[in-house]
Write a structure and sequence with these properties.
The protein is α/β, with parallel strands linked by helices. The protein has 5 helices and 13 strands. It has a single domain, classed as Metallo-beta-lactamase, Chain A. Helix content is about 25%, strand content about 20%. The protein has a 7-stranded mixed sheet with strand order 6-5-4-3-2-1-13, covered by helices on one side. It has a 6-stranded mixed sheet with strand order 7-8-9-10-11-12. The longest helix is centred in the C-terminal third of the chain and has 16 residues. It is globular, with a radius of gyration of 16 Å. The chain starts with a strand and ends with a strand.
């Protein structure tokens, strides 16, 4: 499978049968790195929750305009929003290549009041697992999309979760708030740490595909 990471939490997954886009958020849309016109097809859009960095209205509407038959999978609240925009091919249930697992968004108290928005972990094709904004995933397929930073969680909690899950490959996401120097430093440290457990830690370059 070929993966391409765009800004923050947005990742494109392509194989011979299907193309899926994870978390089309505002940072990825604003970066201009993903050209929808260059995509020959898009089968699935997978959205872990409704926060703007994962779910951008102009990005989603542009996707739907380019690919009117694409299937959206997300939380009940996101699906309701999509249908309010006239996007009917949207589900909050597992279906064929997509498994949705309810998983609480990490608390942001006292910065933000409880409860947090609905969040789902997404397991795709028995290959990829994405917990959304959570460090409490309890199962992972071979490829783990690991949220490494955020106002709701610490990097060390992400690392501890990955150690427990033991994936074969880790793809870091949710790193918009790091500058380039700190990102490179942390990616180097995590690459060396996970190599001791024979886990591949990918250091993605925005917009450049890699194989998993």
């Amino acid at each position: 499978m070929k993966l391409t990471k765009f800004a923050h939490a947005c990742v494109l997954a392509e194989d011979e049968q299907h193309t899926a886009l994870f978390d089309p958020g505002e940072f990825a849309w604003g970066s201009g790195k993903l050209s929808l016109t260059s995509l020959p097809k898009l089968d699935y859009v997978l959205i872990t929750h409704e926060h703007f960095d994962h779910f951008s209205e102009p990005f989603v509407k542009a996707i739907h305009a380019r690919f009117p038959d694409v299937m959206f999978f997300s939380t009940q609240s996101v699906v309701a929003t999509l249908k309010g925009w006239g996007i009917e091919k949207a589900l909050s249930l597992s279906h064929e290549n997509v498994e949705l697992q309810s998983l609480n968004h990490e608390s942001m108290e006292p910065l933000s009041p409880a409860p947090q928005v609905q969040n789902v972990a997404i397991h795709y094709k028995d290959i990829i697992s994405h917990p959304g904004d959570s460090h409490h995933l309890t199962k992972s397929h071979d490829v783990l999309f690991l949220p490494v930073s955020g106002p709701w969680g610490a990097t060390i909690d992400a690392i501890r979760m990955a150690v427990k899950l033991k994936p074969k490959t880790i793809v870091p996401v949710h790193d918009w708030m790091w500058n380039d120097q700190w990102r490179a430093t942390m990616f180097d440290r995590m690459e060396a740490f996970f190599a001791e457990s024979e886990i591949r830690f990918v250091k993605p370059v925005i917009g450049e595909p890699f194989e998993v």
